[in-house]
Amino acid sequence: MVIFMLVWQGLEEFFQVVEQGSFTKAAKELDVSTSHISRQLTQLESRLGTRLINRTTRKISLTDAGHQYIISLKNIRQALSDATDHLQGTQQAPQGLIRITGAGDFVSKQVAPVLAQFMKRYPQVSIEMNFSARNVNLIEEGVDLAIRFGRMQDSNLIARPLCARHMSLVATPTYLNDHGIPTTPEDLIKYNCLVAITNRWRFNIDGKIKEIKVQGNWRSNNPDAIKQACMTDLGIAYLAKDLVQPQVDSGQLVYLLDDYQVNDNANWLVYPKKDLIPHRVRLLIDFLLVHFSEN
């Protein structure tokens, strides 16, 4: 017990200095003196045999060792919280915060309504939805779930497919009348291509997957912005088929090079590998998987 207390000594002070950004604010948060914070950190660094924080008169900054240590400590603290949540959650109605990140039309129009249904069933659960196109580090930033699109490669995460999402090339009849119709993927280098996630578009050519590097004068990480630019006759877009199907049906857009399309993309539900997942998060994972498997 004494050894455990000694190991834990100074960690809360270290947490608060990092989170608050200064010794003074950390002392105020913990209701102790600044000298107490400084003394605890000095003793912690002495026990570890390494400096964790660079101290200057104006600001503090983490050393490389300090950065790695705070990540590990956050994981430990999260694991303790998860263990408590899991035990309590299996014995009572789920409650607490679930943090989710994702972006795009699929998340806002198809995932968000399902989250609302989940909260109606479990009213003591809170959801924080961050619509960010940034590839958030789930573990470092304490995010429970992410909705991502494409092909998953990160072995530190669990990825469960929600639904397949086929890609398509589209352009307006006016743009094609003015510039001609591409007959092979290689022809795309001659056209103004509207770039969303990447300018390397994948095609099935002679049974092999090949990337074509395209270029154009319009780029956005928002698929709807790409679609709107395409509909104003600006160029050729590479978008999810469900996003442009209404405009194709109405004749505003035309599919191109369908025979070359690669259909191995999907929308994924992604979350960190953990021995214990909070009960409320596990319930939401199952809720989403069942919903999309049935629809």
Task: Describe it.
By secondary structure, the chain is an alpha/beta fold. It folds into 3 domains: 2-62, Arc Repressor Mutant, subunit A; 96-162 and 266-294, 3-Layer(aba) Sandwich (D-Maltodextrin-Binding Protein, domain 2), CATH 3.40.190.10; 167-260, D-Maltodextrin-Binding Protein, domain 2 (3-Layer(aba) Sandwich), CATH 3.40.190. It is built from 10 helices and 13 strands. A 5-stranded mixed β-sheet has the order 4-3-5-13-6, covered by helices on one side. The chain has a 4-stranded mixed β-sheet with strand order 8-11-7-12. The protein has a two-stranded antiparallel sheet with strand order 1-2. Helix 6 packs across helix 10. The longest helix is centred in the N-terminal third of the chain and has 26 residues, at 64-89. The radius of gyration is 25 Å and the shape is elongated.
Structure in a nutshell:
The chain has 295 residues and is of the alpha/beta class. The chain has three domains: 2-62, Winged helix-like DNA-binding domain superfamily/Winged helix DNA-binding domain (Arc Repressor Mutant, subunit A, Orthogonal Bundle), CATH 1.10.10.10; 96-162 and 266-294, 3-Layer(aba) Sandwich (D-Maltodextrin-Binding Protein, domain 2), CATH 3.40.190; 167-260, D-Maltodextrin-Binding Protein, domain 2, CATH 3.40.190.290.
SSE layout:
Elements: H1 2-8, H2 11-20, H3 23-30, H4 34-48, E1 53-55, E2 60-62, H5 64-89, E3 96-102, H6 105-121, E4 125-131, E5 145-150, E6 157-164, E7 167-171, H7 173-179, E8 193-194, E9 200-205, E10 208-213, H8 223-231, E11 236-240, H9 241-249, E12 254-256, E13 266-272, H10 279-294
Parallel strand pairs: 3-4, 3-5, 8-11
Antiparallel strand pairs: 1-2, 5-13, 6-13, 7-11, 7-12, 9-10
